[in-house]
Design brief:
heterodimer; A: mainly alpha; B: 1% helix
C-alpha cells in the first residue's frame, strides 16, 4: 500500500514539476532552430549565393530570404519534403527583418559600395552559431556618418518613424528597473535623447496640468502599467501627502488640493463642513497647539487653504512680538526685500 | 551653402490620428479626446492632443459645464543637420534642474560638434484654471557637455515670476553616465536662490548582469517642499523641512516567465524615520507576455502614513486571432491602515473588472465595472467605457 502511495505521490510531484516548469517558461515549447550561418560560411559559400539580388536593393522591396528552391540547389536531397524555413531559421528573426525593412531607411545598395562587398563587416553574428544577424546599433554608429547623426539626435536619418516604431531599445538605452522613479533624473539630463522616441503626449499624460483624468483611469484596461497614481490612489493620497509632501508639489500646485476638495464638497471651505481641524488645533501659548507640528510635517496641506489671502490668519499670531512668536527657524535667511516682497511684507511692515 | 546642398530624399512620412470616447457612470463624466501628429523629415514635427468633456467635476472638468482643453499643441522645427531645433506651443518642459513644467512657450536647442549643447526656454506655466495665484512667466537656460559616448554633464538656471514678483530662482546640476554596459548612474541637484537652500537632490546607481537576470539599484532623494512652493508663500518661512528617502531595489528574473522585485527604503519626514517597501511578482502566462498575473505586497510606515496593501492583477487573453483580440483584466487591491476605526473603516478594498476588444483596423472597445470602499465612502460603484480609434499611415515616398 505504501509503495502505491509513494509511486502515486512521485507521479503527481513529477507532473506538477513539469506543469510548473512549463508555466514558468523553464521548459520551452518546440520552436524552429537557429539557421546554421556559421556552417555555411565555413564551407566558403558566399552570402549572395543564398541572398541573391540584395546588393541592388534600396529603401524598399523584399527581404531576400532564401526560399526552399534556393536551398535545394545545393541540398539536392533534402531530408524532409516540408518548406525548409519551417524548421531552419527562427520565425521571430524573419519577423524582425521584416519590421526593419518597414521602419528603417536602409539601402543595401549604398552600404554595399561602402563595405566593398564585405557583409560580415556589419553582420558580425554570421560568424557565430546564431541566425540573429541583424546589425547591432553600435555597429551602425561606428560609421562616421551615423556617428554624427547620433550626436545630433538625427534618428530620422535611419528610422522612418521612431516614435511610431514602438521598439524597445536593444542596447543603447535601457528602460529596465523602476523606470517610474529613474526616468525623471535621466530625462532631465538627456531629454534630447528621450524625445527621439517619446512624444509629448507620453509626457503630458502624467505631467500635464490640463489632463482630464489620471492615466490609470483613462486606460482602465491596462492594469500592468506602472503609473504614479494607481486607480485606487485616492484611498491613500492623504497619507502619502503627509509622508512625502514634496513629491506632490513636484507636479501639483498647493492649490490643487483645495481646488478638488472644494469642488467635491469635502473641504473646510464648504459651508456645510465647518472647521476641518480637530479640537486643540490652535490656541494660546501653552495649549496643545498641534497645528505647528502638522505644518512642519506637511506645509503644503496648510498652504492649500491658507495660501494667498489666508496667510493673514497665520500672521495675526506669528509675527515678532505676537503670541505665536517668530516663525523662522534658526539660521533662516532670504534674499527677498522685506519691505516690498511677499510674504515678508505681511509681517515686516515698513521693512522692520 | 548648406542650404543649397542637396538634401537626402525624404522617405515615407508618418502621420497619425486618433479619437477616443471615454465615459464614466456614477458620477457621470463624458470625454472626447482627439489627437494627431505629423512629420516632414527632417524639418518639422507637429502634434496635438485636445479634449472636451462634461459631467461631474474632476481635474480639468468644471462644475458640470462643457469644458474644452488642449493638453499638447506643439510644433518642433529643426535644421536638416540637427544642429538646432526649436519647439513652440503647449508642451511639457523638463530639462536640467527644471522639474517637469507644462507651459505655453518655446524651447530652443543648439548643438555644437564638441557635444556641447545650449538650451534656452521660456513661457507661461499653465495653471489649469485653478483659482488663486497666476504665474506670469518662467525663463531659463541650460548648458551641457557630452562625456564621450558615455554620458552628459549639465548646468542650468531658471527664474519664475508670479504676479510680477520673483517667486522662484534655481540653479542646478545634472549628470548621467553609462560607465559600462552593466553600470548606469544619474543625478540631479537643484538649489533655490531666493530663500537659499537645497530644493532637490535625486541620485540613482543601477547595475545589471549582461543576461538581464538580475538588476540592482541604489537610490536617494531629498526634496524640500518649502523650496518647491512659490517663494511668495508664507509657508516658505518654515525653513528646511526636507523629506529624505534612500533605499535599494532588486529585480530577479527567477524563471523565463517569472519576475520578482523587492524594494526597501528608509524615509525621513519631519525628523522622524520610517520605512517603505514592497515585494512584487509578475508571471507571464505565455512567452510573448500577452497574458500575465501580478501579485504585490506593500508596506509603508512613515510619519502618519502607516498602511499595508495587497494588490492582485491579471491580463487574461480570452480570444486571439490575426485580426482581433479579446481580453479580460481583473484587478483587486486592499489597503489596511494601521489606524483602524469604525469612522474611517478598517480596510479599504478596491476592485475592477475590465473587458476589452481590439481590432487590427485600429478600433478598440473596452468596458469595466469598479467598486470600492474608503475613508469617505462605504460603497462606491462605477461603470467605465471607452471606444477608441487609432490610425497611422505613411505619406508619399
Amino acid at each position: 500500500m505504501r509503495k502505491i502511495v509513494a509511486v502515486t505521490a512521485l507521479i503527481v510531484l513529477a507532473g506538477s514539476a513539469g506543469a510548473c516548469a512549463k508555466m514558468l517558461g523553464l521548459e520551452q515549447e518546440k520552436e524552429n532552430r537557429a539557421f546554421e550561418h556559421r556552417a555555411h560560411v565555413l564551407e566558403g559559400i558566399n552570402c549572395l549565393e543564398c541572398h541573391a539580388g540584395i546588393p541592388e536593393t534600396g529603401d524598399t522591396g523584399p527581404t531576400h530570404f532564401p526560399t526552399t528552391a534556393d536551398c535545394v540547389e545545393c541540398h539536392e536531397e533534402p531530408h524532409d519534403p516540408e518548406t525548409c524555413s519551417n524548421c531552419h531559421g527562427r520565425a521571430r528573426n524573419r519577423y524582425a527583418a521584416e519590421m526593419a525593412r518597414k521602419h528603417l531607411r536602409f539601402s543595401h545598395a549604398t552600404h554595399q559600395e561602402e563595405g566593398a562587398g564585405d557583409c560580415v563587416r556589419c553582420h558580425v553574428n554570421v560568424t557565430a552559431d546564431s541566425d540573429y544577424v541583424r546589425t547591432k546599433h553600435p555597429t551602425c554608429l561606428s560609421c562616421h556618418t551615423h556617428k554624427g547623426q547620433w550626436d545630433t539626435r538625427d534618428c530620422g536619418g535611419c528610422h522612418v518613424d521612431l516614435p511610431g516604431e514602438m521598439a524597445r531599445p536593444e542596447s543603447h538605452v535601457v528602460h529596465d528597473g523602476n523606470f517610474l522613479r529613474e526616468h525623471g533624473v535621466q530625462a532631465n539630463a538627456q531629454g534630447d535623447l528621450c524625445t527621439s522616441c517619446h512624444t509629448q503626449r507620453q509626457c503630458a499624460e502624467c505631467h500635464g496640468i490640463t489632463v482630464p483624468t489620471i492615466p490609470s483611469r483613462l486606460d482602465f484596461d491596462a492594469p500592468m502599467r506602472d503609473t504614479m497614481h494607481r486607480a485606487n490612489f485616492i484611498s491613500v493620497h492623504d497619507m502619502q501627502a503627509a509622508a512625502d509632501p514634496a513629491a506632490c508639489v513636484v507636479c501639483h500646485s498647493e492649490l490643487f488640493c483645495v481646488d478638488c476638495h472644494t469642488r467635491l464638497g469635502i473641504s473646510g471651505q464648504n459651508p456645510s463642513r465647518g472647521n476641518p481641524h480637530p479640537p486643540g488645533w490652535s490656541g494660546p501659548p501653552g495649549s496643545s497647539n498641534t497645528h505647528g507640528q502638522a505644518a512642519r510635517l506637511d506645509p503644503l496641506s496648510c498652504a492649500s487653504c491658507h495660501g494667498g489671502a489666508g496667510e493673514v490668519l497665520c500672521v495675526s499670531c506669528h509675527q515678532v512680538g505676537g503670541p505665536g512668536g517668530n516663525p523662522h527657524p534658526p539660521g533662516f535667511n532670504s534674499r527677498l526685500d522685506k519691505a516690498n516682497d511677499l510674504p515678508c511684507r505681511l509681517c515686516h511692515v515698513g521693512g522692520l | 551653402m548648406l542650404l543649397l546642398a542637396p538634401l537626402p530624399q525624404a522617405a515615407a512620412q508618418p502621420h497619425s490620428v486618433g479619437a477616443e470616447l471615454w465615459g464614466q457612470l456614477d458620477p457621470n463624466v463624458g470625454l472626447i479626446i482627439l489627437e494627431g501628429s505629423t512629420r516632414k523629415y527632417p524639418y518639422v514635427d507637429a502634434e496635438a492632443l485636445i479634449w472636451g468633456g462634461a459631467g461631474s467635476p474632476q481635474f480639468g472638468l468644471r462644475d458640470n459645464e462643457a469644458t474644452f482643453e488642449a493638453l499638447v499643441i506643439s510644433v518642433k522645427v529643426r535644421d536638416p543637420k540637427g544642429i538646432s531645433d526649436a519647439r513652440l506651443g503647449r508642451f511639457i518642459l523638463g530639462t536640467g534642474a527644471v522639474r517637469a513644467q507644462h507651459i505655453d512657450g518655446g524651447h530652443l536647442t543648439l548643438r555644437a560638434p564638441s557635444k556641447t549643447h545650449f538650451e534656452a526656454f521660456g513661457g507661461v506655466p499653465i495653471d489649469g484654471n485653478i483659482e488663486g495665484r497666476r504665474y506670469d512667466w518662467i525663463a531659463g537656460a541650460r548648458v551641457s557637455q557630452g562625456l564621450g559616448k558615455i554620458g552628459t554633464l549639465g548646468g542650468s538656471y531658471y527664474n519664475r515670476y508670479n504676479a510680477g514678483q520673483r517667486s522662484d530662482e534655481e540653479v542646478g546640476v545634472d549628470f548621467s553616465l553609462r560607465a559600462a554596459s552593466w553600470l548606469d548612474m544619474a543625478a540631479k541637484f537643484s538649489w533655490e536662490i531666493v530663500n537659499p537652500g537645497l530644493a532637490e537632490v535625486l541620485a540613482t546607481i543601477s547595475s545589471q548582469t549582461n543576461n538581464r537576470k538580475f538588476r540592482g539599484e541604489l537610490f536617494a532623494s531629498k526634496r524640500n517642499p518649502t523650496r518647491f512652493l512659490q517663494q511668495t508663500s508664507l509657508f516658505t518661512v518654515l525653513g528646511d523641512l526636507g523629506t529624505l528617502k534612500t533605499g535599494a531595489n532588486l529585480f530577479w528574473r527567477a524563471a523565463p516567465r517569472l519576475d520578482l522585485t523587492v524594494e526597501g527604503a528608509g524615509q525621513q519626514a519631519a525628523d522622524q524615520w520610517g520605512w517603505t517597501g514592497y515585494l512584487r511578482g509578475l508571471l507571464r502566462t505565455d512567452d510573448e507576455g500577452k497574458g500575465s498575473v501580478l501579485g504585490e505586497l506593500r508596506r509603508q510606515q512613515v510619519a502618519a502614513s502607516r498602511w499595508t496593501g495587497i494588490r492582485l492583477a491579471s491580463v487574461i487573453q480570452l480570444f486571439e486571432n490575426i485580426h482581433q483580440t479579446v481580453g479580460l483584466m481583473p484587478e483587486f487591491e486592499i489597503i489596511i491602515p494601521d489606524d483602524r476605526n469604525d469612522v474611517t473603516g478598517r480596510a479599504w478594498p478596491w476592485g475592477r473588472l475590465a473587458l476589452r476588444y481590439r481590432h487590427q483596423s485600429g478600433w478598440s472597445f473596452a468596458t469595466a465595472a469598479e467598486a470600492s470602499a474608503n475613508q469617505t465612502q462605504r460603497l462606491d460603484v462605477r461603470g467605465l467605457a471607452r471606444v477608441s480609434y487609432q490610425r497611422a499611415w505613411h505619406g508619399k515616398q
